[in-house]
Design a protein that fits this description.
The complex is a heterodimer of chains A (126) and B (146). With 126 residues, chain A is an all-alpha fold. In chain A, 89% of the residues lie in helices and 0% in strands. Chain A has one domain.
Chain lengths: 126, 146
Protein backbone atom coordinates (compact mmCIF):
# COMPACT_ATOMS: atom_id res chain seq x y z
CA UNK A 1 0.00 0.00 0.00
CA UNK A 2 2.83 2.32 0.90
CA UNK A 3 4.37 1.40 -2.43
CA UNK A 4 1.26 2.52 -4.28
CA UNK A 5 1.21 5.83 -2.40
CA UNK A 6 4.85 6.49 -3.25
CA UNK A 7 4.42 5.84 -6.96
CA UNK A 8 1.17 7.78 -6.95
CA UNK A 9 2.99 10.78 -5.48
CA UNK A 10 5.86 10.37 -7.97
CA UNK A 11 3.32 10.27 -10.79
CA UNK A 12 1.73 13.45 -9.40
CA UNK A 13 5.16 15.15 -9.35
CA UNK A 14 5.82 14.14 -12.96
CA UNK A 15 2.39 15.24 -14.21
CA UNK A 16 2.37 18.53 -12.31
CA UNK A 17 5.90 19.58 -13.23
CA UNK A 18 5.42 18.62 -16.88
CA UNK A 19 2.18 20.62 -17.02
CA UNK A 20 3.97 23.51 -15.31
CA UNK A 21 6.90 23.44 -17.73
CA UNK A 22 4.57 23.32 -20.75
CA UNK A 23 2.50 26.25 -19.44
CA UNK A 24 5.59 28.33 -18.60
CA UNK A 25 7.13 27.58 -21.97
CA UNK A 26 3.92 28.56 -23.75
CA UNK A 27 3.71 31.80 -21.73
CA UNK A 28 7.29 32.78 -22.57
CA UNK A 29 6.87 32.01 -26.27
CA UNK A 30 3.87 34.36 -26.30
CA UNK A 31 5.84 37.06 -24.50
CA UNK A 32 8.62 36.71 -27.07
CA UNK A 33 12.38 37.22 -26.88
CA UNK A 34 12.87 38.71 -23.43
CA UNK A 35 16.30 40.20 -24.18
CA UNK A 36 15.00 42.11 -27.18
CA UNK A 37 11.91 43.31 -25.33
CA UNK A 38 14.05 44.45 -22.39
CA UNK A 39 16.27 46.56 -24.64
CA UNK A 40 13.25 48.10 -26.32
CA UNK A 41 10.98 48.81 -23.38
CA UNK A 42 12.75 48.14 -20.10
CA UNK A 43 12.61 45.60 -17.33
CA UNK A 44 9.27 46.61 -15.81
CA UNK A 45 7.45 46.15 -19.09
CA UNK A 46 8.97 42.70 -19.49
CA UNK A 47 8.06 41.67 -15.94
CA UNK A 48 4.57 43.08 -16.35
CA UNK A 49 3.92 41.19 -19.57
CA UNK A 50 5.13 37.93 -18.09
CA UNK A 51 3.16 38.21 -14.86
CA UNK A 52 -0.06 39.13 -16.67
CA UNK A 53 -0.03 35.89 -18.71
CA UNK A 54 -2.60 33.46 -17.26
CA UNK A 55 -0.50 30.49 -18.41
CA UNK A 56 2.46 31.87 -16.43
CA UNK A 57 0.45 32.10 -13.22
CA UNK A 58 -1.03 28.64 -13.77
CA UNK A 59 2.42 27.27 -14.57
CA UNK A 60 3.79 28.59 -11.28
CA UNK A 61 0.80 27.05 -9.46
CA UNK A 62 1.53 23.66 -11.08
CA UNK A 63 5.17 23.94 -10.01
CA UNK A 64 3.97 24.50 -6.45
CA UNK A 65 1.75 21.41 -6.70
CA UNK A 66 4.76 19.45 -7.98
CA UNK A 67 6.87 20.69 -5.08
CA UNK A 68 4.36 19.66 -2.42
CA UNK A 69 3.75 16.29 -4.11
CA UNK A 70 7.50 15.78 -3.94
CA UNK A 71 7.44 16.55 -0.22
CA UNK A 72 4.66 13.97 0.23
CA UNK A 73 6.58 11.38 -1.76
CA UNK A 74 9.67 12.06 0.33
CA UNK A 75 7.73 11.45 3.52
CA UNK A 76 6.82 7.95 2.28
CA UNK A 77 10.00 6.83 0.55
CA UNK A 78 13.74 7.44 0.33
CA UNK A 79 15.08 10.42 -1.52
CA UNK A 80 17.31 8.05 -3.49
CA UNK A 81 14.20 6.53 -5.09
CA UNK A 82 11.93 9.55 -5.31
CA UNK A 83 14.31 12.18 -6.70
CA UNK A 84 15.80 10.25 -9.63
CA UNK A 85 12.52 8.49 -10.47
CA UNK A 86 10.55 11.73 -10.68
CA UNK A 87 13.36 13.68 -12.40
CA UNK A 88 14.02 11.12 -15.11
CA UNK A 89 10.34 10.40 -15.80
CA UNK A 90 9.81 14.16 -16.06
CA UNK A 91 12.38 14.42 -18.87
CA UNK A 92 10.59 11.78 -20.91
CA UNK A 93 7.10 13.15 -20.11
CA UNK A 94 8.29 16.62 -21.12
CA UNK A 95 9.52 15.41 -24.49
CA UNK A 96 6.08 13.85 -25.16
CA UNK A 97 4.17 16.88 -23.85
CA UNK A 98 6.32 19.35 -25.81
CA UNK A 99 5.56 17.42 -29.00
CA UNK A 100 1.83 17.09 -28.36
CA UNK A 101 0.96 20.41 -26.73
CA UNK A 102 3.68 22.82 -27.89
CA UNK A 103 4.10 21.23 -31.35
CA UNK A 104 7.86 21.30 -30.94
CA UNK A 105 9.71 19.24 -33.49
CA UNK A 106 11.02 16.46 -31.25
CA UNK A 107 13.34 14.73 -33.72
CA UNK A 108 15.55 11.65 -33.20
CA UNK A 109 18.18 13.83 -31.63
CA UNK A 110 15.85 15.12 -28.94
CA UNK A 111 14.29 11.71 -28.20
CA UNK A 112 17.73 10.20 -27.76
CA UNK A 113 18.74 13.14 -25.58
CA UNK A 114 15.65 12.80 -23.36
CA UNK A 115 16.31 9.06 -22.89
CA UNK A 116 20.05 9.50 -22.28
CA UNK A 117 19.46 12.25 -19.73
CA UNK A 118 16.73 10.22 -18.01
CA UNK A 119 19.04 7.20 -17.82
CA UNK A 120 21.93 9.33 -16.64
CA UNK A 121 19.89 10.83 -13.81
CA UNK A 122 18.94 7.33 -12.61
CA UNK A 123 22.60 6.24 -12.64
CA UNK A 124 23.73 9.36 -10.76
CA UNK A 125 21.44 8.42 -7.91
CA UNK A 126 22.35 4.73 -7.96
CA UNK B 1 22.20 31.07 -31.12
CA UNK B 2 24.39 33.96 -30.06
CA UNK B 3 27.10 34.00 -27.41
CA UNK B 4 24.76 35.89 -25.12
CA UNK B 5 22.17 33.10 -25.37
CA UNK B 6 24.74 30.45 -24.48
CA UNK B 7 25.57 32.60 -21.45
CA UNK B 8 21.90 32.49 -20.38
CA UNK B 9 21.91 28.68 -20.74
CA UNK B 10 25.10 28.51 -18.68
CA UNK B 11 23.31 30.64 -16.09
CA UNK B 12 20.39 28.17 -15.98
CA UNK B 13 22.82 25.34 -15.23
CA UNK B 14 25.13 27.19 -12.83
CA UNK B 15 22.50 28.99 -10.75
CA UNK B 16 20.48 25.81 -10.21
CA UNK B 17 23.52 23.82 -9.08
CA UNK B 18 24.88 26.59 -6.83
CA UNK B 19 21.44 27.35 -5.39
CA UNK B 20 20.79 23.68 -4.55
CA UNK B 21 24.24 23.33 -2.96
CA UNK B 22 23.72 26.37 -0.72
CA UNK B 23 20.20 25.28 0.22
CA UNK B 24 21.39 21.80 1.15
CA UNK B 25 24.21 23.25 3.24
CA UNK B 26 21.85 25.63 5.01
CA UNK B 27 19.20 23.01 5.70
CA UNK B 28 21.82 20.71 7.24
CA UNK B 29 22.70 23.51 9.66
CA UNK B 30 19.06 24.21 10.43
CA UNK B 31 18.27 20.54 11.02
CA UNK B 32 15.08 18.59 10.48
CA UNK B 33 11.79 20.46 10.67
CA UNK B 34 8.95 18.42 12.10
CA UNK B 35 5.60 18.46 10.36
CA UNK B 36 4.03 19.57 13.64
CA UNK B 37 6.11 22.74 13.72
CA UNK B 38 5.70 23.67 10.08
CA UNK B 39 5.73 27.44 10.78
CA UNK B 40 9.36 26.96 11.88
CA UNK B 41 10.19 26.86 8.18
CA UNK B 42 9.97 30.67 8.18
CA UNK B 43 12.97 30.86 10.50
CA UNK B 44 15.08 28.80 8.10
CA UNK B 45 15.05 31.89 5.87
CA UNK B 46 17.23 33.59 8.49
CA UNK B 47 20.02 31.13 7.79
CA UNK B 48 22.45 32.92 5.43
CA UNK B 49 23.11 29.79 3.33
CA UNK B 50 19.39 29.23 2.83
CA UNK B 51 18.85 32.88 1.92
CA UNK B 52 21.77 32.76 -0.53
CA UNK B 53 20.43 29.51 -2.00
CA UNK B 54 17.03 31.08 -2.60
CA UNK B 55 18.71 34.11 -4.17
CA UNK B 56 20.53 31.86 -6.66
CA UNK B 57 17.38 29.84 -7.37
CA UNK B 58 15.58 33.09 -8.24
CA UNK B 59 18.45 33.78 -10.62
CA UNK B 60 17.96 30.30 -12.06
CA UNK B 61 14.25 30.97 -12.59
CA UNK B 62 14.94 34.28 -14.37
CA UNK B 63 17.49 32.61 -16.65
CA UNK B 64 15.15 29.66 -17.29
CA UNK B 65 12.25 31.96 -18.26
CA UNK B 66 14.56 33.99 -20.50
CA UNK B 67 15.79 30.84 -22.26
CA UNK B 68 12.21 29.61 -22.76
CA UNK B 69 11.37 32.90 -24.45
CA UNK B 70 13.61 32.03 -27.42
CA UNK B 71 14.24 28.28 -27.25
CA UNK B 72 12.15 25.09 -27.20
CA UNK B 73 11.36 23.38 -23.91
CA UNK B 74 13.00 20.18 -25.23
CA UNK B 75 16.14 22.25 -25.93
CA UNK B 76 16.38 24.02 -22.56
CA UNK B 77 15.50 21.09 -20.28
CA UNK B 78 18.50 18.88 -21.10
CA UNK B 79 20.68 21.91 -20.37
CA UNK B 80 19.26 22.06 -16.84
CA UNK B 81 20.36 18.44 -16.33
CA UNK B 82 24.00 19.51 -16.76
CA UNK B 83 23.53 20.89 -13.25
CA UNK B 84 23.56 17.31 -11.90
CA UNK B 85 26.88 16.75 -13.63
CA UNK B 86 28.23 19.95 -12.15
CA UNK B 87 27.08 18.91 -8.66
CA UNK B 88 28.89 15.57 -8.99
CA UNK B 89 32.07 17.36 -10.10
CA UNK B 90 31.82 19.84 -7.21
CA UNK B 91 31.36 16.89 -4.85
CA UNK B 92 34.43 15.18 -6.30
CA UNK B 93 36.88 18.07 -6.54
CA UNK B 94 35.81 20.47 -3.80
CA UNK B 95 34.17 18.24 -1.21
CA UNK B 96 36.47 15.26 -1.98
CA UNK B 97 33.56 12.80 -2.03
CA UNK B 98 33.93 9.46 -3.76
CA UNK B 99 32.26 9.41 -7.17
CA UNK B 100 31.49 5.81 -8.12
CA UNK B 101 31.87 4.27 -11.59
CA UNK B 102 28.06 4.16 -11.96
CA UNK B 103 27.92 7.90 -11.35
CA UNK B 104 30.64 8.61 -13.90
CA UNK B 105 28.55 6.58 -16.38
CA UNK B 106 25.51 8.69 -15.47
CA UNK B 107 27.55 11.86 -16.00
CA UNK B 108 28.63 10.55 -19.38
CA UNK B 109 25.05 9.75 -20.46
CA UNK B 110 23.73 13.18 -19.45
CA UNK B 111 26.60 14.97 -21.17
CA UNK B 112 26.05 12.92 -24.33
CA UNK B 113 22.34 13.75 -24.25
CA UNK B 114 23.02 17.46 -23.93
CA UNK B 115 25.59 17.21 -26.73
CA UNK B 116 22.95 15.63 -29.01
CA UNK B 117 20.40 18.40 -28.42
CA UNK B 118 22.73 21.36 -28.80
CA UNK B 119 23.75 20.08 -32.27
CA UNK B 120 20.24 20.77 -33.53
CA UNK B 121 18.16 23.91 -33.93
CA UNK B 122 17.11 25.69 -30.73
CA UNK B 123 13.62 26.72 -31.79
CA UNK B 124 10.91 25.00 -33.82
CA UNK B 125 9.57 27.30 -36.51
CA UNK B 126 5.81 27.21 -36.97
CA UNK B 127 5.12 28.52 -40.48
CA UNK B 128 1.35 28.53 -39.95
CA UNK B 129 1.32 30.74 -36.88
CA UNK B 130 4.86 31.93 -36.42
CA UNK B 131 3.46 35.21 -35.25
CA UNK B 132 5.20 35.89 -32.01
CA UNK B 133 8.11 37.80 -33.47
CA UNK B 134 6.66 39.66 -36.40
CA UNK B 135 3.45 40.58 -34.65
CA UNK B 136 3.38 42.93 -31.71
CA UNK B 137 3.43 40.50 -28.77
CA UNK B 138 1.09 42.69 -26.78
CA UNK B 139 -1.55 42.48 -29.51
CA UNK B 140 -1.53 38.68 -29.30
CA UNK B 141 -1.10 38.71 -25.58
CA UNK B 142 -3.68 40.93 -24.03
CA UNK B 143 -6.92 39.39 -25.04
CA UNK B 144 -9.73 41.38 -23.50
CA UNK B 145 -10.64 40.06 -20.10
CA UNK B 146 -14.29 38.98 -19.79
Amino acid sequence: MKHAYTWGAILAVVLASTTGDVLLSRAMKKVGDVGELWRRSGMLTVAGRIVRRPSFVLGIAMMAVAFFSLLFALSWADVSLVAPASASLTFVANAIAAKVFLHERVDHRRWIAALLVAGGVVLLAA
Amino acid sequence: MTFRKYLVLAGVTLFAAIGDTFLARGMKQVGAISLHNLPDIVFTLLNPWVALGIFFLLGFFAAYMTALSWADLTYVLPATSLGYVLLALIAKFFLHEQVSATRWLGIGLISAGVGFVTQGPALTRHPAHDGHQEMEPEAVGSRAEP
